[in-house]
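Record passed on here:
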Amino acid sequence: MDVIERVREVNRAVDLSETRIAAAKARFLSGVAESSAPPKRIARRSTFVIAGAVVGAAAVTASVLAVHLSAAPPPRVEAVPVLPTVVPSASPSPLPTTVDPTPVTAASVFAEAARASGSNAAPAPQHGQYLRIEREVNNLVLYGPTSPTTPFDASRADATAAWTARSHWTLYVPADRSAEWVQEFSNQFEVAGFYGTSAEVHAQEWLGVGPREPFFTRTPGGLGEPAEGELSRASEAYYSEFPRDPAALLEWIRVRNGATDGSEWSVGTVTEVVLEELQYNTAPADLRAALYRVLAMLPNSTITSVEGSIATVSFSPNPGRWVSNQVSVDQSTGLVVGSAIRQDPGEGIVPGDMFDSWTTTTVSVVDAAP
């Protein structure tokens, strides 16, 4: 049973439509790892910044000209008109020279992240240790009494109440990747940010649906049990199939996902596959570098914000997939530290700039797994 099926079982009290399940699966990407093998054709889902400043200073110097007046010869004294003494003014100070910093672009962010990945700047566990990847996952929950399956699966246009729900999902990756991987699902939710009518009341109703006990999954060598004939997600065998040359990797993803015509749909498909792999933060350093270089080759990304080494990049709207999609990258390590996506294009009681799902990721090394 893969992770998504497990989540369905945990929330079996909620009869979700297949369309909403697909969207929820995408939004919960950063919070729930699935067990699928190589990237698949998809029509769902799924964001820091380099700042550079050059400060120039110019010293202003002023020259002072002293004029020495010598005494007149003594032989004769006669009236001589007094001429004013003219002291030359100081030369104008040169204007400060400013050098514009190299503009930060999405491509430069991805190139720097690729460089950091290739130099193994990210935390790495030693023998007996684990890489701990913790995700704080925030989801927008929409309530609508007329929703055909469950009132907690409304659209933005139909929702009469809404709130955000925060939970945690933590993955423990052993230094020996063939050993046991542990996933810890808190299954506990903190609700906040209420909108609409009786939102707090409905949020408490939502908290009472389905089991809310924490649970763990333990699988050898990867994320979840693979389907018959497939490779375990994030296993060494799984990653060995990915080409490391960026151009070859791009073509490989296109062919495997039927995205070879260069259309907007195809670009979105490749973007989605690459982001999904990067957001796990489990890919080997050389593959992570190649994935960033593939993103740099795509035409659909722009810089959103920059703060220190963290760059946030936005991807162009892709009808049927997302209204807005962002990823945040720590360029000093090459790791994804955040992501956000909005898939529902409707308008209603929720602010238009609010995402459907957003995630903050923290990566560290620990000595043991639960």
Q: What stands out?
A: DSSP finds eight helices and ten strands in the chain.
